[in-house]
Every structure is written in C-alpha cells, then in structure tokens.
Amino acid sequence: MSNTLLSRRQMLASGSLGGAALVMSNLGFAATSSQTSAKPQGKTLETRDEAALLAYLGASPQSLPNLPYAQDALEPVISARTVGIHYGKHHQAYFTNLHKLLADTPLATATLEQLILKSHGREEMEDIFNNAAQAWNHNFYWKSLSPVQTSPDERLSRAIVGKFGSLEALSKQLLSVSASQFGSGWGWLVVDKGELAVVKTGNAETPFTRSGQLPLLTVDVWEHAYYLDYQNRRPDYLAETIAKKLNWTFASANYARI
C-alpha cells in the first residue's frame, strides 16, 4: 500500500482501521477459509462447507437495500418513526462505514457474507466485521418482519412441532431467549446440525459464524429497534413483534433451501 493511501486510511478512521488496512494490502481475497491464515473462532468450516454456507446465505452487495414494505407498514407494533430512524440512520450508517473502511482495498467489491466470514475473529479486522455483520443482520431483520399475519408452511410447521411442541411454545422460547440477551444483540431461529434451535447473539455477531448455524429469521434487540415505541420494555416489544409481525413465509422459504 502506498504512503498516500495509508495516510488516507488513517484519516478516515481511528483505532484498528490502520492495522486492518495494512493487513488487507497483503491479503489476497477469496471466499474460502482455507486461504485465510487466521481462522474464525470456534469450529473451522471446511472449504466445501463454507461454499455451501455462502450458497445458502446468498451474495449481498455493500449497499443499502430497499425496505420490503412502507415505513409505516408495521404499525402499530413498530412505528414509522422507529423504522425511519432504524433503517435510514442506523442501517445506512453500517454501509457508509464499510465504504470508508474498504475503499481502494481488495475487499471493496466483496459481498457482506464474504466479509463476515473473512473478518470474524480477527482483531485487526474488527471494525470491518462489526459493520458488515450489522449491515447483514439488518438486511435479514427487515425480511424477518411482515406487515400481514403469516404462518409457517407445512414442512416448517412439522419441524416446529417436532422440536418445540407447538408454534406457541417456540414463540415463548424466542421471546425468552431474546429478552435475556444482556445489552445489544439479536434473537434467532436457526437450523443447527439439522435441528431447529433458538439462539441469541451479542452486538454484531451472527449465527452462521458459529460452525455454520443457518438463520431462518431474527428479532433485533438493540435499543434503537424499540426504544422510541416501548422505552425500556423490551419484552413488550418482543411479545408484540413475535405474535403479530414475524414473517413465517420468509422463514419457510429459508427452511426449504436447507
């Protein structure tokens, strides 16, 4: 990397960005973990498994997607004001930060999924991971919500009954686990080693960095997702959202691809 480019990187951000830029200058980007010297924490995915994981997750560009509905479509459960700030300010900021972090580097054209897998567990790429993962999590969150009431399809319904006993029991567990996340984070319905599971992640963490857990849907428990509408009543936000606004059609489509 030239001295000019390094100076530009340092001016754009502080902290670990300078170190991350230096690492990227010597890093030949590829989607497979076999070409990465520092592996993600936890069980390392084999190359063929990571390829399958990327195929499931898709290829998300480094740009803010359109909301799948109008900003007021989730009212009264989630207000248009909350959606406007959440989507237009917080979600947009992650992409803006990524553009600054990755401009003129080999990772500038990578997908969010590739960035997440490549940067996870690497201290020198922590800023990249946090912004890429939060961008991806929010993409997934908006799709996990629906303005109209939905239900799981037959295949997913059978799996839910087999694992949890009923959709109501699953909903209660998703609420409980999500509400129990200390501080900022996410609640998820995932497929883990072939079985449905409810998990939580902190801050920007994603399930698919955990030995390839496959997310079906998510609920956001960062305060900016609910504070304007519910203040500190996170369980109330979760109860209303899970009961009335989860997009089971989206979850069913994800499950059908597994």
From TrEMBL:
Keywords attached to this Swiss-Prot or TrEMBL record, sorted alphabetically, are:
Metal-binding, Oxidoreductase, Signal
Q: Identify the residues that bind Mn(2+).
A: H86, H138, D220, H224
Q: Which reaction does it catalyse?
A: 2 superoxide + 2 H(+) = H2O2 + O2
Q: What region holds the Manganese/iron superoxide dismutase C-terminal domain? A: 153-253
Record domain Manganese/iron superoxide dismutase N-terminal: where? 63-146
Going by the record, the broad EC class of this enzyme is oxidoreductase
The UniProt GO MF terms for this protein read: metal ion binding; superoxide dismutase activity
The organism's superkingdom is given as Bacteria
Q: What's the Enzyme Commission number for this chain?
A: 1.15.1.1
Q: Which InterPro entries match?
A: Mn/Fe_SOD, Mn/Fe_SOD_BS, Mn/Fe_SOD_C, Mn/Fe_SOD_N, Mn/Fe_SOD_N_sf, SOD_C_sf, TAT_signal
Described by its record, this protein's role is as follows:
Destroys radicals which are normally produced within the cells and which are toxic to biological systems.
Name-wise, this protein is Superoxide dismutase
Could you tell me which species this protein originates from?
Answer: Pandoraea oxalativorans
Write the lineage as a comma-separated list.
Bacteria, Pseudomonadati, Pseudomonadota, Betaproteobacteria, Burkholderiales
